[in-house]
Amino acid sequence: MEEVIEDEENVPKKTGFFARLKSGLSKTRGQLSAGIDNVINGKAQVGPELLEELEEVLLTADVGVSATMSILDELRAEVASQRVRTKDEIMDRLKSILSETLEENNRDWVNPGKNPLVILMVGINGSGKTTTIGKLAEKWKQEGKKVLLAAGDTFRAAAAEQLTIWAERANVSIICQKTGTDPSAVAFDAVKAAVSREMDIVLIDTAGRLQTNHNLMEELKKIKRVIGKALPKAPHETFLVLDSGLGQNANSQCKLFDDALSVTGLIMTKLDGTGKGGVLFNLAKETKKPVRFIGVGEKSEDLQEFDSKSFVNALFES
Ligand SMILES: Nc1nc2c(ncn2[C@@H]2O[C@H](COP(=O)(O)OP(=O)(O)OP(=O)(O)O)[C@@H](O)[C@H]2O)c(=O)[nH]1
Ligand SMILES: [Mg+2]
Questions:
Q1: Whether residue 273 has its Cβ less than 6 Å from ligand 1
Q2: In angstroms, what is the span from residue 110 Cα to ligand 1's centroid?
Q3: pTM of the model
Q4: Which of 156, 269, 296, 303 to mutate to test the pocket of ligand 1 (most atoms within 8 A of CB)?
Q5: Burial profile 91-105: b = 16 or more Cβ within 10 angstroms, e = fewer
Q6: Which ligand is nearest to the CA of 136?
Q7: DSSP at 272
Q8: Residues 59, 60, 63, 67: what is their CA dihedral angle, to the nearest 10 degrees?
Q9: Cis omega (within 30 of 0) on the bond before 235?
Q10: I need a surface site. Which of 60, 63, 136, 171 has the fewest CB within 10 A?
Q11: Cα separation of 189 and 101, whole Å?
Q12: For residue 236, which phi and psi values (nearest 5 degrees)?
């Protein structure tokens, strides 16, 4: 089947959630779903050869070794027991296994009670932390929430400026301090301010850093500890923002950020720019973390709350 790669420019501004998702996933659809379609529509009949071809497609589409093995084990067992007999049935079963792989990590959001929900954003340089905070601020403000941003990237002046532009655009408050200020102090002040101003949500930006940089990871641990001093049990969520285009490297990033900070959820950005969206299945299996949001474009409406069924449907619907 020919894959139509939709052009982001051609998507009308007001297209619905699902159309945006489909458009944003077009590259991954070309990589993963088109590969699966080729196998299903190819010569091999239901049996070991077809399953091997599927295995190869999943591996080349960044689904990763452990997720691929577990998906294939399940399919092989169903073929062996003849619960799955036709190619259509294989396709249906594959889609539901993929969807279940993502659903396994579904978790409710923490309820902070009368306190603001405090979210700490971490990740490597350029993964999309600041942009994602801006998009979330717009989204939650539009939903009527009182949102406060904390410019915790005090490393570069441009970082606070970038976040201030987002705060102005979303019409939400922001706590900024001089470049070079201890980021823990910014986070502390922001959380204290949010409590006294009865905010609903605080989003704390941090400077990008490599997960292997010991000192910078220690700095993040300190930010997290200090937030807990401003408000016990905060931060309620520590989100690791991952550039989907980095594929398998996401696992090692997640492992080290998690060891340092106990990451509570993932945000996968730039899915629109990569064919490596299969990495979400790999991450689901390896990290057991819920994906909370996905970025399928640069506009604020392109940040979507993650829904595993819609994700799999958008990947496979032609
Ligand atoms: N196409 C696309 N671009 C994105 C998405 N999310 C972020 N970006 C772009 O990625 C670039 C980096 O985003 P930032 O938000 O500045 O990244 P950051 O993690 O804050 O970077 P540092 O502060 O340097 O660590 C920007 O050009 C964003 O517009 C997305 O979902 N899709
Ligand atoms: Mg930033």
A1: yes
A2: 26
A3: 0.94
A4: 269
A5: bebbbebbbebbeeb
A6: 1
A7: G
A8: 0
A9: yes
A10: 171
A11: 40
A12: -75, -30
Residue 112 CB coordination number (10 Å): 18
| 61 pocket-lining for ligand 1 (C-beta < 6 Å) | no
Q: What is the pLDDT of residues 14-57, one digit of tens each?
A: 468 899 999 999 999 999 999 999 999 999 999 999 999 999 99
Q: Which structure tokens are listed for 285?
A: 């299996």
Tell me, using a 6 A CB cutoff, whether residue 274 lines ligand 1. Answer: no
Which three-class secondary structure state does DSSP give residue 115?
Answer: coil
User: Among 124, 170, 175, which residue's Cα sits nearest to residue 299?
Assistant: 170
- Nearest ligand to the CA atom of 301: 1
Question: pLDDT per residue over 136-194, tens digit each?
Answer: 999 999 999 999 999 999 999 999 999 999 999 999 999 999 999 999 999 999 999 99
